[in-house]
Amino acid sequence: MKLYQNLFLIAVALFFTTIQSSQSKNILLDQYSNLLYNFLLGKEIIKPSFPASNQIDKLTRKPENQSTNCQPNYTQPNFLVVGGGGAPSYNEIALEKNILYFQRTLKQMGYEPSSAAIFFANGNDKQATVRYLDSQRNEKFKVPNIPHLQGSATVENFQKSLKNILEKPDKKPLFFYFTGHGHLNKQNDDNNAIILWEEDLVTVRGLSNFLDKLPQDKQIVAMMAQCFSGSFANFIYQDGIPGKPLALQTRCGFFATISTLPSVGCTPEVNEADYQDYSSSFFAGLSGVNRIGKAVSSADYNRDGRVSYAEAHAFAKVDEKSPDLPVSTSEVWLQRKITKIDIDRILSEPIVKFVNIARPEQKYVLTSLSKLLKFNPQNSYWQNFETILDGKSITQVTQAYQLRLLMQLINVGKIGRAHV
Fold this sequence. Notes:
35% of the residues lie in helices and 13% in strands. The chain contains 13 helices and eleven strands. The chain has helices spanning 7-11, 22-40, 93-108, 155-166, 204-212, 278-287, 309-319, 329-335, 340-348, 351-357, 360-373, 381-387, 396-415, and strands at residues 78-84, 116-120, 130-133, 139-142, 149-151, 174-183, 193-195, 201-203, 219-224, 250-255, 327-328.
């Protein structure tokens, strides 16, 4: 069982807001602790006595011996964007708007939007495939309208573009952005898939195996916003299989949520002011401008004059008001190295201790989420957790903040100032 795979189950305990007696609270905390320890350590999950809304497949985690590095290369990357649904019925307008926002982000950062290779849904065949709701809430379809669109989001176009970019003689890194739908592999969520046009699947292993055959001297950064996207953190391994050596290419990535949970953002609604998703927050942090054109607070947490991908990821963890649980390649890697001693120590010590050893972007997440949750940083996570069992209602967003804070504490507490 992987570290973040079943955090959603833990969150069910947070809905127990009518418990008043200290004895009942202690029972719930014991159940919470027992559940947490078991899935963090990769053991069979002990189902709690409180009702669980999601049933998660039980898989055995695999031990790892290596880490990876995801520091950005500030040379202008080669950009590759793939998006859209697999068919018109779920080719929502929000996916098209995500690509348009990405193009505005490029322009804001001083890059030419035309420099990105973009493939979306059915491409340029003039068929009305983009699903949206009009002002009367009627379902409608329109032709894709994306400047510089090169073609459809087929497996053939995706692989051909990857090959062309990685075989270029330049040493530019590749920034790959996927905004579409994900497929959960119920037999093995280490090998989920993205859904391309005509409902063809590209699995983690399929992508990794394809990349393994291409030149190995390029850095690849992925930002993937689909459901179950955290599974693609495994593309850092040869053939995409945890337990195998790391790929010779430097690969790293940032993902909207963990491998077993859906993400938000695929909507037929047209008003971008209402969008609350990982793409919106990540690119707002990266560029300093949100998708409706308003400036946001700077994500340059280390004050070096530029925003890294890790800083944009940190910005999204606080900014995104949704149930998503964003993760990076190193954060998923860390979960395979956690021990019971680590867990007990991290969650029992004052939050401020980890704030003091965290890197700037990690510190921002810890302090901001603690403030939003009204957690006392002088107390431990467990001590603060007890205070939420006080009869107050808890929203999904608050629940996500609680889990993101727990995840960040473990990240910092396990490896301290190690690089993302």
